[in-house]
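FORM 7B: Structural annotation worksheet

SECTION A. Query
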Amino acid sequence: MRSLPTVVAALLLGGLGLIATSQTQVFSPGDAGLPMDARLVEQLDDQEATLNQRRQAETLLRAFVRGQLASFYWGQFASSLTDLGLSSDETMDVRVETQASSTRLWLTPKRGSESYVAIVHFNGSKLVRVQCRGLTPASTEQMAAVCPEGWRAFEIPAL
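SECTION B. Predicted structure
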């Protein structure tokens, strides 16, 4: 009688093993049949793209702020990236807004939802600069040297 549970357990395990091996599909490491891996690869690709965009945006924002500080020293803010000797690639939509006492550079990458703005503002006694990062879209109607609502200011490390 003691061997009956052992025999039943062995038969059940054997049956489960047969079922499992008959339904097992073998995938190669790069096979597109793995939806979890595809999502993970896509997620990692998006994260890498975001980091590259941040790096590109920070470089352009830094150059814009420096150029506008120098331009204002010589009389007025520059009205375009070209006036500052700068350019951007096709991966971002670029918009420069210039008024008498402030200027803004809006960067909206064509991929992802994170956007950037650099603001240089003369408050009557000194130039104030702010760099912000946030989700698109943002209202362009705002105070002179303040990040759009819901956006965060950040420092750009000096080179």
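SECTION C. Observations
The radius of gyration is 28 Å. The longest strand covers residues 114-122.

SECTION D. Sign-off
Analyst initials: ____
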